[in-house]
Amino acid sequence: MLKVQIRDHAMFEWKPINVTIWNEFRVEKTNPEAGRVYPKGIHTALSDGLQPYGFRIQTATLDQPEHGLTAEVLDRTDVLIWWGHLAHEEVSDSIVNRIYEKVRQGMGLIVLHSGHYSKIFRKLMGTSCTLKWREDGKRERIWVVSPGHPIAEGIGSEYFVVQKEEMYGEFFDIPAPDELIFIGWFKGGEVFRSGCAYYRGMGKVFYFQPGHETFPTYYNKYVLHVIANAVKWAVPTTSGTEPYADNRHVEPLENTDC
Amino acid sequence: MLKVQIRDHAMFEWKPINVTIWNEFRVEKTNPEAGRVYPKGIHTALSDGLQPYGFRIQTATLDQPEHGLTAEVLDRTDVLIWWGHLAHEEVSDSIVNRIYEKVRQGMGLIVLHSGHYSKIFRKLMGTSCTLKWREDGKRERIWVVSPGHPIAEGIGSEYFVVQKEEMYGEFFDIPAPDELIFIGWFKGGEVFRSGCAYYRGMGKVFYFQPGHETFPTYYNKYVLHVIANAVKWAVPTTSGTEPYADNRHVEPLENTDC
Amino acid sequence: MLKVQIRDHAMFEWKPINVTIWNEFRVEKTNPEAGRVYPKGIHTALSDGLQPYGFRIQTATLDQPEHGLTAEVLDRTDVLIWWGHLAHEEVSDSIVNRIYEKVRQGMGLIVLHSGHYSKIFRKLMGTSCTLKWREDGKRERIWVVSPGHPIAEGIGSEYFVVQKEEMYGEFFDIPAPDELIFIGWFKGGEVFRSGCAYYRGMGKVFYFQPGHETFPTYYNKYVLHVIANAVKWAVPTTSGTEPYADNRHVEPLENTDC
Amino acid sequence: MLKVQIRDHAMFEWKPINVTIWNEFRVEKTNPEAGRVYPKGIHTALSDGLQPYGFRIQTATLDQPEHGLTAEVLDRTDVLIWWGHLAHEEVSDSIVNRIYEKVRQGMGLIVLHSGHYSKIFRKLMGTSCTLKWREDGKRERIWVVSPGHPIAEGIGSEYFVVQKEEMYGEFFDIPAPDELIFIGWFKGGEVFRSGCAYYRGMGKVFYFQPGHETFPTYYNKYVLHVIANAVKWAVPTTSGTEPYADNRHVEPLENTDC
After folding, report:
1. What residues in B contact A173, CB-CB < 8 Å?
2. Neighbors of chain C by Cβ distance (3+ pairs < 8 Å)
3. Cα dihedral A30→A33→A36→A41 (10° resolution)
4. With a cut of 0.85, is the ipTM above it?
């Protein structure tokens, strides 16, 4: 059984992590195979799978008003998880900008699988985020290359396997991750930087490769554990107030000799 | 005298580096102080200053058709140098996308000073690129923190001084540089990551802080030498063809046992 | 008042973080000024200052048997904090190797100030770790350049000030930090990468600049809060067992066609 | 045919790159298979293979006086290439320190294959440099993950294949590379960070995985081209003089108000 440990204790206040899981929720309705694997949607599977971790979870989908990501919802969100696939272009630019601003101000963002092509991920990365893909349902072997990283916590081995997964292969057009945590191996000869962590503004972003809609990836306990680790890693760090305000000099500018 | 060394020789073909210097060229006409320091525009000062390095240089400005950055010009450009200040919003989105695509395909980009707020830099960085600033004309002391980096070549000391510069201060909302080369010190108490190198797509981007329009920064031989180093670093590396095409498996996918 | 927040709750077991503070404890006895500022030693000041954070703290000093770092002590240590100055060479190689192995296996290490020249830090960095220094007692202004980083948590501003500090200046011969969190400004014109985080083996290392022995740095609440943040960041991540054992192939090596 | 391009021209002086290839040169004499593939030693194959690139090449081996790396030889060396396997412990510490000092002062170092366990590489990395290995002679597929990097220049594809290679697998206990250029795929399910670049002191270090002694890896034109690229990348950058000398303040320390 995977256990979660608390290391801090004194002078604390208990605040659960507020997680919003955003799922496009289209392909589960249009693709029978996806509908069979995720009858209530990928967001529900993720929500169920993350329950043991004690997060306060809500979900949102594309076809809700404002895609379910109203200002109130985002104000209450510590970490946003994103899964999208067929309808990236239907996400309105104003909502994308709203999410972007929240990340800049500290909200965490976890982008899963085909979310690599989402407007919000591409905006934050500044690159095309293209990659190779092949829907062959072979296994992916995900190796840990940063074993000291909190996102790798509790895996219990040097790798874990996703039994059926869609191949994603390099060259993955992303910025070099601030922290590269996983590399994936695929039977067809490809490799992929499957777990990539970034600091952006006052926020944190984690991209995680597994999650094709016709495979039961989001029931895999290792995949869920990594996502939970990433949620805890991505929680906003209250470093300070909006840092862009003051340009008055903080040291004396005495003498004009220069 | 700063010297340039050739280290390669055999089996070579001589190809000068094609540099396009893009300058907004507005403030030199509207601000008398800037006009006094750069009577023919910042682009001309840069072009003159970079002559000894043997690049093939052309210039382009905002008010030219297509901002001087036609498809033909960009096709012939190895490295684009960018200085903008007051009119970032007037750069058309289609030209920004054209530059963005060229960088993705390998073109180098050097962004100077107030260009941190340019559309192209903000698009490539994916962050707000905000910072502190103060036009006090005090000196900036630029320290080398990566002395083995080619962009730091030939400086001859641990730091160089820009006698009069506009203060830029942290927090500079950029991604952590792939390579941090310079940190700047300002009399008013601020520090700044003044030389930041990035790999984006198949291209390379270098941000360099100095260059306020009312100070003679672009006549400073150290500043010019760094820009020349950055040009040579940013030259397209012909690694391969467009890598996004083929998803056919390269290794046998024999047996369907997984 | 600085507060500590717990974000996790369910399925947890409470485990305080075991911190061992190692201090050379020589200069406090030989230098009257240092003795006046730290009458019971730097380790006692740090221990007192970190009490509110709820760590389980023990101390160790150079002149104890095995420098106080027996195998039993290190086995119980989650994070080791290190302050040394005059007697780096007196730390026995076998103890250095013992610490090195523990870090490799996951123990966290926080190296303070003049500890940059400690055998253990130099061994882990693989560089000379030289720097500039000047004992002028001017202030250091420490800027946050990674506001989303947990080590920057709770600072409440873009910078904090250490009123009197020994100047440390670049070029600091360290590997580029995996994560650069702070840059320091000094009145005499220098800058310094004052907060540097590294992943090494299965462990984590944080170097933090402030802490000259004749200044009351370790009573500064910001300095203490950063050290506490670093302790929490550096806690061992139980990613897996010793990963170096098995080289048996994990995928079928069928067919010998290659 | 792979071509080398010169991009610089004016104000240049022609200086060939001085390369010293160090090879242990033991296994070629004790293992008949290795002796068959490299009858004159790995160093000779590398020297022959690198001829077209116009470097000034000399070789050195373990059993020469001072391992062939006298002070004079190293003074004339811009980039040192290192291949070792069975006798890492026989390399004398004084020679290791001599190499270490030269790297700190700017010399480039390229470490190949089993050189990951060399004293010099382990000293520079500060980690154990352990990894998985299996001598199965299957192919390695090396993918480019930083296509804009000069070390990836001219490969002409997204990957290249080494037909027969010894598997090296993660977790490779190295610091996260400053620049990760290649990831390798192995048939048995492993992945490996096969091309890793580091800045250390004023020097540059590149680790490159291919090169088991019983396979003709060093006749592979892609492998040779990468090594040549790495040589050019690792050439000393004459940034400045020895930076550790002067601690006199460079800015006025007027007023003692702090």
Report:
1. 104, 201, 244
2. A, B, D
3. -50
4. yes
* Cross-chain Cβ contact D147/B10 below 8 Å: no
Q: Give me the residue label for tokens 């010998």.
A: C256
Contact at CB, B244 and A130, closer than 8 angstroms = yes
Quote the minimal CA–CA distance from A187 to chain B in Å: 6
Neighbours of A97 (CB within 10 A): 13
Contact across the interface for D143 and A179, Cβ inside 8 Å: no
Q: d(Cα A200, Cα A104) in Å, to the nearest integer?
A: 6
CA dist A120 and A110 (Å) reads: 11
Residue holding tokens 């510069």?
Answer: B165
Q: Does the beta carbon of C238 lie under 8 angstroms from any beta carbon of chain A?
A: yes
Q: Are strands A179-186 and D203-208 parallel, antiparallel or unpaired?
A: unpaired
Contact D95, D69 (CB under 8 A): yes
When CB atoms are compared, the residue of C152, C185, C235 closest to A239 is C152
> Per residue in A192-213, is it b (16+ CB within 10 Å) or e — as a string?
bbbbbbbbbbbbbbbbbbbbbb
Instruction: Please list the pLDDT of chain D residue by residue as tens digits (258 residues).
Output: 333 444 544 444 568 999 999 999 999 999 999 999 999 999 999 999 999 999 999 999 999 999 999 999 999 999 999 999 999 999 999 999 999 999 999 999 999 999 999 999 999 999 999 999 999 899 999 999 999 999 999 998 899 999 999 999 999 999 999 999 999 999 999 999 999 999 999 999 999 999 999 999 999 999 999 999 999 999 998 765 555 555 666 677 654 333
Class of C5-127+194-234 per CATH? alpha beta
Look at A141 and C239 and tell me if their CB atoms are within 8 Å: no
D20 is written with which tokens? Answer: 């010293």
Which strands, in side-by-side order, build the sheet including C79-83? C56-61, C18-23, C79-83, C108-112, C203-208, C191-200, C179-186, C140-144, C159-162
pTM attached to this predicted model: 0.93
D164: number of CA atoms within 13 Å, CB side? 15
Q: How far is CA D204 from the centre of its chain?
A: 9
Say yes or no: D191 contacts chain A, CB-CB below 8 A: yes
**C64: which residues sit within 8 A by CB, 6+ positions away?**
none
DSSP state of C40: T
Would you state the structure tokens that stand for residue D105, as one six-digit string? 């002062």
**If you count residue pairs, one on A and one on D, with CB atoms under 8 Å apart, how many are there?**
61
How far, in whole angstroms, is CA B167 from its chain's centroid? 19
Contacts of A189 in chain D (CB under 8 A): 141, 185
B-facing residues of D in 78-137 (CB < 8 A) are 78, 106
Label residues D229-255 b or e (16+ Cβ within 10 Å = b): bbbbbbbbbbbbeebeeebebbbeeee
> What length does chain B have?
258
Which chains, if any, share at least 3 CB pairs under 8 A with chain A?
Answer: B, C, D
Query: How many angstroms away from the CA of A107 is the closest CA of chain B?
Result: 14
* Cβ A99 vs Cβ A120: under 8 Å: yes
Are D193 and A183 an interchain contact pair (Cβ–Cβ within 8 Å)? yes
Delimit the domains of chain A by residue range.
Answer: 5-127+194-234
Instruction: Tell me how many degrees the CA angle D15-D5-D17 measures, rounded to the nearest 5.
Output: 25
- AA letter at C165: E
Phi, psi of B108 (to 5 degrees): -85, 155
Contact A126 B130 (CB under 8 A): no
Contacts of A254 in chain D (CB under 8 A): 254-255
Bridge partners, C183 (sequence order): C143
Cis peptide before C171 (omega within 30 of 0): yes
Collect all residues of chain D within an 8 Å Cβ-Cβ radius of residue B232.
7-8
Nearest to C4 among A11, A154, A158 (CB): A11
Residue C11: φ, ψ to 5°? 55, 45
**Distance in Å, alpha carbon of A179 to nearest chain C alpha carbon:** 8
Enclosing H/E stretch for B5: strand B4-6
